[in-house]
Amino acid sequence: MKSVLLIGLGRFGRQMAEKLRELRHQILAVDRDEGRVNDILPLVTNAQIGDGTNEAFIASLGVRNFDLCVVAIGDNFQSSLETTALLKEYGAPFVLSRASSEVHAKFLRRNGADDVVYPEKQMAQWAAVRYSADHVFDYVEMTRDHSIFETQVPAAWIGKTIVELAVRQKYRINVLATRTGDQLEFLPGPMHRFRREETMFILGANRDVQKFLNL
Q: What SUPFAM superfamilies is this protein classified in (predicted)?
């Protein structure tokens, strides 16, 4: 369990709070808007009305004591930048800031952000991959060049084993898991025989996975 300071309670901040709560982390949520603070109270350990650009307010939070500080401000880049800088100035060990463009990301990193997320960009990329490829159900980018895809088992694979198909040697992909309904089988062995009702999670270089998906 980690202690998390979450500043900014718009849509992105609220979604972060909901997931962090599900993961059983301790959350202090902060926003200038009293209504947003009141709305988030059932989801967090504590919440305060406050301005992240106010140095005295940031100093009062004891940011050194949080494992993670999230700057989720999306509607005011100047505020996001100032909040990020103040958190690092007062000793926050790790600051994750939200950006809406590459330029914003560069400025945030220069002002202390340890990492940056781009919700709109990341969702757009996911949707482009997910809906432009046939039989792809989910997609997770691991690096710029490697990803995990959940995809349908090819019809020609039904009834055959991983070793018979020489999956890794022939297609240069790895089968990480298979799914049947809600049941996952992780790291299926070489004698795993594919079934019609399965989907599979495959990992590989994007160019190799795309070649496989286009077969």
A: NAD(P)-binding Rossmann-fold domains, TrkA C-terminal domain-like
